[in-house]
């Protein structure tokens, strides 16, 4: 546990030091839970977008893109249910005046009890050494059993209160468990209230004319309201999908864990429209496709798992998350939802416009059902950083910090390193850069020893360094040095483009998804 928290700190500080992610408005001491992507972060983010966009639109004949506006007609959010139901249960401490999510206070309480269990397990491990059987120990140790029963009881009561929207029961649970404000230690709590997560603002420049509008809390609704526009103008036949990447905003009360939970974030969502009755077949299809997309990056073994939703949202008839093993443990990275015809039907009702499709094969009209895949771009960024950042001890016992980002996603693809600053070697570097710049983001680095330059490139995840030396002038060869293996290879400049395409190009990565 301790080690994992250190890992998150390490990622945050590495991201800042090398220009991946900065705290937003830092010169004004920052703004809570908002971050800016720096020069390398912006590149990595764009590359993740490209991987997703290409895999969705280029690799599927029946999926097209969309870029809808962030502001939408306010009725959109009545129809989608966000105005009534997109809430968090909040409780205030009367003494400290601090506001908390009631369910998070309860979850933290359970986590404290769980820590006692982990401590007991560690004690057992120490006592029994090699013969330690954790499963048996957990099933028989009285302290663990007592604490596990406490956790189970809180979980059951919390789930029931949330499902029944029983805010009084939620408060009673907090009071009965004697949960104190983490800041002041006070147990003087207000009632629990529902708090809507949408940000609102006023539209229109004339006072009085202003209408309350919302910053979209998900990109999906922009797809639903454009369903017929895209279907008709693109002559799309069901089944087909619409993919979109864009910002979403949620007034999260507890926004933390770096870029994992923010108030302004980016989503990559795809809505796949299918005939009624076929939705669960397509739901299974998209689960497989999305798992493949994640695993294709080879970030490591056992980093992903599916988590089926126990309590389904009112519009869903199946839903699961793809969870990733972040430094804070397994958490939601992507959601896959079978949303039925709920959204389109709601928009029909609230707009008074028909959103049905005539299916020539079935010879009937219907409102399609929808399978949604929804992934947080910032969470994907964090997943890649956390799986890629390695502190390696080398054969000679020295160490290096390396970001093993999948090569096509790396912010800088190649570093061009003239061995010395003279003898015409920098000129050759510039000539080479002029050839490579059409395809690859590159850096030329002339400063310090070649070893130090390799380390700098390792730390930002550059997959290939090209070293130019005096021999280059004689025989048109250069040395390639590969980030992951640190192997070096002398090659003819004439072969360079082919090698780079194979190592860094999109095709190799996307081929496995074909
Ligand atoms: N349209 C469905 C939808 O929005 P969601 O589970 O609320 O579903 C989808 O969000 C994804 O968006 C999540 O799996 C997560 O990756 C990302 N996400 C949600 N809230 C976020 C936040 N506050 N900060 C960063 N990413 C977030």
Brief write-up:
By secondary structure, the protein is of the alpha+beta class.
Question: Can you give keywords for this protein?
Answer:
514 residues, alpha+beta, seven-stranded mixed beta sheet, five-stranded mixed beta sheet, binds glycyl-adenosine-5'-phosphate
Task: Give a description of the structure.
The structure is a single chain. Helix 14 (425-436) links the parallel strand 19 (414-418) and strand 20 (442-444). The model has no long low-confidence stretch (mean pLDDT 94). Helices cover 40% and strands 25% of the residues. The protein is built from 18 helices and 23 strands. Helix 2 (39-58) crosses helix 13 and helix 5 runs antiparallel to helix 7 (142-163). The chain is α+β, with helices and mostly antiparallel strands and 514 residues long. The longest helix is centred in the first third of the chain and has 27 residues, at 102-128. The protein has a seven-stranded mixed β-sheet with strand order 3-9-10-16-13-12-11. The structure holds glycyl-adenosine-5'-phosphate. The site of glycyl-adenosine-5'-phosphate has 19 residues, from strand 10, strand 13, strand 16 and helix 13.
> What is the terminal-to-terminal distance?
39 Å
The total count of strands amounts to: 23
Percentage of helical residues?
40-55%
Q: Mean pLDDT, nearest integer? A: 94
Tell me the fraction of residues in β-strands, as a range.
Answer: 25-35%
Continuous helix count: 18
State the shape.
globular
What does the radius of gyration come to? 27 Å
Order of strands in the sheet with the most strands?
3-9-10-16-13-12-11
Largest sheet: 7 strands, mixed
Structural class label = alpha+beta
Which distinct ligands sit in these coordinates?
A: glycyl-adenosine-5'-phosphate
Oligomer: single chain
- Provide the low-confidence segments as ranges: none
């Amino acid at each position: 546990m301790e080690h994992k928290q250190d890992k998150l700190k390490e990622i945050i500080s590495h991201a800042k030091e090398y220009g991946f992610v900065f705290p937003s408005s830092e010169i004004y001491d920052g703004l809570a839970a908002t971050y800016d992507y720096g020069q390398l972060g912006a590149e990595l983010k764009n590359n993740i977008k490209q991987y997703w966009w290409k895999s969705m639109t280029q690799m599927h004949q029946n999926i097209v893109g969309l870029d809808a506006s962030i502001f939408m007609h306010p009725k959109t959010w009545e129809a989608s249910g966000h105005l009534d139901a997109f809430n968090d249960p909040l409780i205030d401490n009367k003494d400290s005046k601090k506001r908390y999510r009631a369910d998070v206070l309860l979850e933290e309480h359970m986590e404290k009890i769980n820590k006692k269990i982990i401590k007991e397990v560690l004690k057992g491990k120490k006592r029994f050494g090699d013969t330690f059987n954790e499963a048996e120990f957990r099933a028989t140790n009285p302290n663990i059993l007592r604490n596990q029963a406490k956790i189970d009881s809180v979980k059951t009561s919390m789930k029931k209160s949330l499902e029944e929207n029983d805010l009084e029961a939620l408060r009673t649970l907090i009071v009965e468990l004697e949960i104190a404000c983490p800041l002041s230690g006070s147990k003087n709590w207000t009632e629990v209230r529902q708090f809507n997560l949408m940000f609102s603002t006023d539209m229109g420049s004339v006072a009085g004319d202003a209408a309350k509008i919302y910053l979209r809390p998900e990109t999906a609704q922009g797809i639903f309201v454009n369903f017929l526009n895209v279907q008709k103008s693109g002559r799309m036949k069901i089944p087909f999908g619409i993919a979109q990447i864009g910002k979403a905003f949620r007034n999260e009360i507890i926004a933390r864990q770096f870029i994992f939970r923010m108030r302004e974030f980016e989503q990559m969502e795809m809505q796949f429209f299918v005939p009624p009755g076929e939705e669960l077949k397509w739901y299974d299809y998209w689960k497989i496709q999305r798992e493949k997309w994640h695993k294709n990056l080879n970030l490591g073994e056992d980093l992903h798992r599916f988590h089926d939703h126990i309590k389904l949202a009112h519009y869903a008839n199946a839903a699961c998350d793809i969870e990733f093993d972040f430094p804070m443990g397994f958490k939601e990275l992507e959601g896959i939802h079978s949303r039925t015809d709920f959204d389109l039907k709601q928009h029909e009702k609230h707009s008074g416009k028909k959103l049905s499709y005539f299916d020539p094969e079935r010879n009937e009209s219907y409102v399609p059902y929808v399978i949604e895949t929804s992934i947080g771009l910032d969470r994907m960024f964090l997943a890649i950083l956390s799986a890629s950042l390695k502190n390696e001890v080398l054969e000679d016992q020295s160490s290096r910090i390396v970001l093993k980002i999948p090569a096509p996603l790396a912010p800088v693809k190649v570093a061009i390193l003239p061995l010395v600053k003279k003898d015409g070697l920098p000129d050759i570097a510039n000539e080479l850069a002029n050839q490579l710049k059409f395809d690859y983001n590159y850096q030329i680095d002339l400063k310090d020893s070649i070893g130090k330059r390799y380390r700098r490139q390792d730390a930002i995840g550059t997959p290939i360094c090209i070293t130019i030396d005096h021999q280059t002038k004689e025989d048109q060869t250069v040395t390639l040095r590969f980030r992951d293996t640190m192997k070096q290879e002398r090659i003819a400049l004439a072969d360079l483009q082919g090698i780079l395409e194979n190592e860094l190009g999109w095709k190799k990565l996307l081929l496995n998804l074909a």
